[in-house]
């Protein structure tokens, strides 16, 4: 049926919620006996090693996207972090005045255009 | 819009092309991929349940769901993981309704974006949250790698669908604009026109690579690289929860292939007028797409993460961008 | 004829509420009094602002000339649907923030000064939005900025806070001064600072060359003056809205402020910059103003800046280790998206594809509202998490404390979904409008950039969720901390996020209405017409 995109999204979201509920219902009917927590599953699975071999279970959050940051876009991030967001005031000023210069240039070009046309 | 229509949509969400059909198609797709991969690697693949083992994935699924018990880990939040599994399944079902394969399919202008958000973003978010809700060094590694891949392959997927949509909207002036339905009905014309052939070819390459990476299939199975991270996102999943996660993954595979079949290979073309023959053509094309995906899967080793990400940029985003540039010029 | 009016009374009464506070601080020692006092003042503002919005949406544009002076001579407040709506959202979110402050500063002694500044911030926000006078906008911008500088440096024993406030203040002073210089050019050439009058002179004067008895005609070259004024004003406004490359102050300033203030700064203050840009580029230098080429060039520059802010904000989000800094970068990213939305109105888009024009602007405004709700929510949640984790803002120290507070985590998820823009949350629909606008306009590559920005920011949000809900740290949970009040507030905001999505058909048509009131030639004409009617009424009153 042809709908406007907003109504279509709302209907599909309704479908999402409805299906999720139905799936949950089916799941709770067909799944096996209630959760049995056996002792061997209590600790995180570390390929058979005991958890005591680790100093921490979780990963520090700054290592999460290591591959994305250092694998794919090392140069980009180096530029963004070390050069652009260096925290030094006059370096900010540089970027900001370049932008002001750009806006002024637009104004100047416009003025030149108007003057050339004899406005 | 009346109540009967809404009821019809809900009913089709549960039957065709919704939950039930999706389950069957996705289990079948899993079997097809497993069997072909096995054959490519000179193994037998599933043989035990059903003719040629076709029922094996069904049996696996049911066994995990019904026989195995739910288990919970000390730090895990099983109920949250399950909630997001159901949301992911719901999102997949919602995205099947956007494809023009049933009388209750929904289409609108810009429904391309709806498809990206339901099929791409919701499913990816669910998978990531399922993975991180049961913390474990391997799960986290897998989830973060998966998210990194998603950050690139989601735009690539969008880009490659954008090209046929743009061509149908601007070159063929088809209505509704930017809609998957319009793309499906006009895709064959785009292939037959020499002007639009090149961007279509580029976007097909782009979407194949994007799909491969979105589905974590080799060479993009970086999130579940077994030597380093055991089973990646699924390390801590077991029993019914693992069944749900596998279902999401297989349904993702099935719908991706279906999207490529419909939007790039024209679905029932050239038998649109004959429903039976059209359906048969669609199925044949669908199997063809699955086979291509499997062949790519079977013929590559695994990339490292940064290799994978660079490959997405090089072989999915770049062709897509070139295709889009050509499409814009036409 | 013009007596006590809800449009006129709001800002002055809030000023009164704010400036009485230091005196009361000397007289009354009970801290609770100030919490209740500030909440009531905010409630008063919220009620009036909501009523004003109701008035505008039912009875049309409202003009209030202060002191009964005819507008170009005196200051006038002029409310069309755009600023009435934003004013309402601002006042309501400020109400939530003020109530939250009562929890946040429960053990703090000098709350009188805090609330003076917070109410001052609200005065500045609503004043900036309501005013119909470009010079009054400058004054209110200063009120807003000075409160903001002081609030950023509120923890004056923390060197980082003071440093951030000084950095923010230094460049902020430059920005407002530049805007002032721009106003000098405007006043010298157009003889007026009233926005409606300016809009008239720039847009309709060509067709009706009737000099305004109060402000005369042009002096000098209006083209040159417009070019200089627009360049300077835009620089100042992008500074306030923290668009790249004027965004540097934001990730330093927002995290250092007290958390409720961060919510106000990130959710509301940046909106004022965008609002001023929109007002200047669509009402004053409107789509049919005679400086078309200038406007087009500026809009294209804004589009590029919007995309750049979106990308840089999203990329920087991924590498943050401080929860509030992560959210601050997300603000930069979202303001970029808003700018992408509002930068659609070049003359070629308007002429060839008015649908895209309306969609883009509506999407931009809608996204502004969505972002306000989502970002205020996330900052308030971060405040709760920080308090529970013992005061550290580091993502690692927060260590999944949210898992013990499911309602707080629920609110966090709602806010993340809002900002990530998944259906059916409001953030999705505003992004949908922006996507579809650029697809309609034949610029699908802009839509592609928007989706790239969203996809990269997904990484940042995953990091946020992971650190605050799932991480297996061992934070020093202070079991004594009671969080029921802030939890209720963040849940209310979360429900608001959901409602902006579920009621999208109403809200979107309202946004189209809003766009019609400020960005179409008819809308600009109506804006001027209401101003002119007020002028006529006042003048005839004087004659009699």
Automatic annotation (TrEMBL), chain B:
Coiled coil, from the record: none
Protein name: NADH-quinone oxidoreductase subunit H
Source species: Zestosphaera tikiterensis
Keywords: Membrane, Transmembrane, Transmembrane helix
Xref: InterPro entries: ComplexI_Subunit1, NADH_UbQ_OxRdtase_su1/FPO
Transmembrane segments: 6-33, 83-106, 112-134, 146-169, 189-210, 277-300, 312-329
Pfam families linked: NADHdh (PF00146)
Localization in the cell: Membrane
Gene Ontology CC terms, in alphabetical order: plasma membrane
Membrane topology: Multi-pass membrane protein
Predominant localisation class: membrane
TrEMBL record, chain C:
GO cellular component: plasma membrane
Keyword annotations: Cell membrane, Membrane, Transmembrane, Transmembrane helix
Signal peptide extent: none
Predominant localisation class: membrane
Residue ranges crossing the lipid bilayer per the database entry: 6-24, 36-64, 84-105, 112-132, 138-156, 168-190, 223-242, 263-285, 297-319, 326-345, 365-389, 410-430, 442-462, 483-507
Domain NADH:quinone oxidoreductase/Mrp antiporter transmembrane residues, every copy: 133-456
Subcellular compartments: Cell membrane
Domain of life: Archaea
Presence of the UniProt keyword Lyase in the record: no
Protein name: NADH:quinone oxidoreductase/Mrp antiporter transmembrane domain-containing protein
PANTHER family: NA(+)_H(+) ANTIPORTER SUBUNIT D1, NADH DEHYDROGENASE
Membrane topology: Multi-pass membrane protein
Keyword Electron transport: no
């Amino acid at each position: 049926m042809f709908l406007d995109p907003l109504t279509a999204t709302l209907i599909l979201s309704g479908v999402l919620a409805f299906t999720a509920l139905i799936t949950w219902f089916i799941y709770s009917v067909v799944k096996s006996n209630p959760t049995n927590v056996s002792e061997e599953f209590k600790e995180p699975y570390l390929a058979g090693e005991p958890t005591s071999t680790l100093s921490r279970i979780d990963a520090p959050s700054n290592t999460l996207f290591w591959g994305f940051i250092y694998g794919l876009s090392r140069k980009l991030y180096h530029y963004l972090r070390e050069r652009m967001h260096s925290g030094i005031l006059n370096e900010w000023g540089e970027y900001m005045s370049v932008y002001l210069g750009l806006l002024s240039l637009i104004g100047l070009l416009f003025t030149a255009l108007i003057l050339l046309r004899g406005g | 819009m009346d109540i009967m229509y809404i009821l019809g949509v809900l009913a089709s969400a549960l039957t065709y092309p919704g939950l039930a059909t999706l389950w069957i198609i996705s289990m079948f797709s899993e079997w097809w991929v497993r069997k072909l991969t096995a054959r490519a690697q000179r193994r037998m693949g599933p043989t035990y349940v059903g003719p040629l083992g076709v029922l094996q994935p069904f049996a696996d699924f049911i066994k995990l769901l019904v026989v195995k018990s739910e288990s919970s880990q000390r730090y895990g939040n099983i109920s949250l993981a399950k909630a997001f599994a159901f949301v992911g399944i719901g999102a997949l079902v919602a995205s099947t309704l956007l494809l023009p394969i049933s009388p209750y399919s929904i289409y609108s202008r810009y429904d391309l974006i709806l498809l990206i958000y339901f099929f791409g973003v919701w499913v990816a978010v669910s998978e990531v949250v399922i993975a991180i809700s049961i913390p474990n060094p391997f799960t986290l590694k897998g989830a973060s790698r998966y998210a990194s891949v998603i950050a690139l392959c989601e735009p690539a997927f969008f880009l490659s669908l954008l090209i046929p949509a743009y061509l149908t909207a601007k070159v063929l002036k088809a209505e509704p604009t930017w809609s998957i339905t319009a793309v499906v009905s006009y895709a064959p014309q785009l292939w037959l026109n020499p002007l639009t052939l090149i961007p279509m070819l580029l976007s097909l390459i782009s979407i194949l690579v994007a799909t491969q990476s979105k589905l974590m299939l080799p060479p993009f199975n970086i999130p579940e690289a077994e030597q380093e991270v055991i089973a990646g996102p699924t390390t801590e999943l077991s029993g019914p929860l693992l069944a749900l996660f596998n279902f999401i993954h297989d349904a993702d595979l099935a719908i991706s292939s279906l999207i490529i079949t419909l939007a790039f290979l024209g679905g029932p073309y050239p038998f649109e007028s004959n429903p039976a023959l059209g359906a048969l053509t669609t199925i044949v094309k669908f199997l063809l797409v699955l086979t291509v995906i499997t062949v790519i899967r079977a013929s590559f080793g695994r990339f490292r993460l940064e290799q994978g990400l660079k490959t997405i940029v090089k072989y999915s985003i770049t062709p897509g961008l070139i295709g889009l540039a050509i499409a814009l010029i036409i | 004829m013009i007596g006590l009016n809800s449009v006129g009374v709001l800002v002055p009464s809030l000023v009164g509420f704010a400036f009485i506070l230091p005196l009361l601080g000397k007289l009354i020692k009970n801290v609770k009094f100030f919490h209740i006092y500030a909440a009531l003042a905010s409630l008063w503002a919220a009620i009036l602002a909501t009523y004003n919005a109701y008035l505008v949406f039912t009875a049309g544009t409202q003009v209030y000339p202060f002191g009964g002076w005819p507008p170009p001579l005196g200051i006038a407040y002029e409310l069309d649907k755009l600023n009435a709506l934003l004013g309402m959202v601002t006042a309501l979110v400020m109400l939530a923030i003020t109530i939250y402050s009562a929890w946040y500063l429960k053990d703090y002694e000098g709350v009188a000064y805090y609330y003076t500044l917070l109410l001052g911030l609200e005065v500045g926000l609503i004043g900036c939005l309501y005013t119909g006078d470009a010079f009054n906008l400058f004054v209110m911008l200063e009120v807003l900025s000075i409160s903001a500088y002081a609030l950023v440096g509120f923890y004056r024993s923390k060197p980082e806070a003071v440093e951030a406030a000084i950095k923010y203040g230094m460049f902020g002073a430059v920005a407002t001064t530049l805007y002032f210089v721009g106003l000098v050019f405007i006043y010298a050439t157009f003889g007026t600072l009233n926005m409606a009058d300016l809009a008239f002179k720039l847009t309709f004067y060509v067709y009706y060359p009737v000099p305004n008895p109060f402000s005369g005609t042009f002096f000098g070259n209006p083209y040159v003056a417009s070019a200089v004024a627009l360049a300077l004003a835009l620089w100042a406004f992008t500074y306030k809205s923290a668009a790249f490359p004027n965004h540097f102050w934001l990730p330093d300033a927002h995290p250092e402020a007290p958390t409720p203030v961060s919510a106000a700064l990130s959710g509301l203050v940046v909106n004022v910059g965008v609002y001023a840009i929109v007002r200047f580029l669509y009402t004053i230098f409107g789509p049919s103003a005679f400086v078309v080429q200038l406007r087009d060039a500026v809009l294209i520059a804004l589009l590029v800046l919007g995309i750049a802010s979106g990308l840089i904000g999203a990329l920087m989000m991924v590498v943050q280790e401080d929860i509030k800094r992560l959210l601050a970068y997300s603000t930069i990213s979202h303001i970029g998206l808003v700018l992408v939305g509002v930068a659609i109105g070049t003359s070629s888009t308007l002429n060839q594809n008015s649908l895209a024009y309306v969609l883009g602007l509506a999407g931009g405004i809608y996204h502004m509202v969505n972002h306000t709700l989502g970002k205020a929510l996330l900052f308030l949640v971060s405040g709760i998490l920080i308090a529970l984790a013992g005061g550290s803002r580091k993502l690692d120290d927060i260590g999944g404390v949210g898992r013990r507070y499911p309602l707080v985590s629920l609110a966090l998820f709602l806010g993340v979904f809002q900002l990530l823009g998944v259906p059916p949350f409001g953030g999705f629909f505003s992004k949908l409008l922006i996507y579809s606008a650029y697809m309609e306009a034949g610029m699908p590559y802009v839509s592609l950039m928007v989706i790239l920005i969203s996809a990269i920011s997904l990484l940042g949000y995953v990091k946020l969720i992971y650190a605050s809900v799932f991480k297996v740290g061992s934070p020093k949970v202070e079991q004594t901390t009671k969080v029921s009040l802030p939890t209720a507030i963040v849940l209310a905001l979360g429900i608001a996020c959901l409602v902006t999505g579920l009621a999208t058909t109403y809200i979107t048509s309202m946004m189209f209405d809003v766009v019609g009131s400020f960005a179409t030639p008819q809308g600009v004409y109506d804006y001027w017409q209401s101003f002119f009617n007020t002028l006529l009424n006042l003048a005839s009153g004087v004659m009699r």
